[in-house]
Predict the 3D structure of the following.
Amino acid sequence: MSHLSFAKGHGTENDFIVIRDRHNLAPLTPELVRAICDRHAGIGGDGIVRAVKAGCMPEWDGDPSLWFMDYWNPDGSLAEMCGNGLRVFVRYLIEEDLVPRSEVPIATRAGLRTVWEQPGGALRTGMGPVGVLAPTWVEAGGVRFEAVAASVGNPHAVALLPDGADLAGIDLRDGVVYDKVQFPDGVNTEFVKVLGHCHLRMRVFERGAGETRSCGTGVVASAAVARQATGTGGPWTVDVPGGRLGVDFDAEQAFLTGPAVILARGDLVMPG
């Protein structure tokens, strides 16, 4: 039997397991990720974040002294970025006294991201530039929706629902169908309703995870698509099943602001 130390946290009820492996001595495998994320036989979570020094990650060629966010979806696939996971990751690093509270640069597969702690404890994250791309479509519960492809370092399809559409009634039990030519590596899908001026409500079906209570990059993609569609600058408020997040933009990038808490720390006993 082997023991694995972990922390568990969430950002707007998007929950993650954090594992520290400073020198990249215990790489994850898809099988191990699936076992740990299992909500019945493991810890349970929407993903795993492994904390590794960036100089120990061969895919990173920047500052080696940074912490690298090695993010895995619960199905065992790798992902480029996760906005809620990044805040939980930084909250963990702060609580472990591994980084200062003021400004925290983090290495990710989507590039460098910077996080700032705000008065009251919220974390504000520079999410990089958002690409609002081509029209596309998605299908859920046998219903087809017009959507817009967007990139926040990872792929999104954002469906802005027309007035009168029932966001809660969209059937996501069997997943989402999408254009596999346009999205050969899969796509995160957001269904979005405009509630008022710069105010959105969103549901999300995440690539590799299914429907989740929140998705940080999906919130940013939704605000960017709504911003372009309405010509309204923001800042934006986005309500998700797990809470509320804020999005604003400057000339270069988007910023995501929201809570992140560490709920527990412990040791997982793994067979083998």
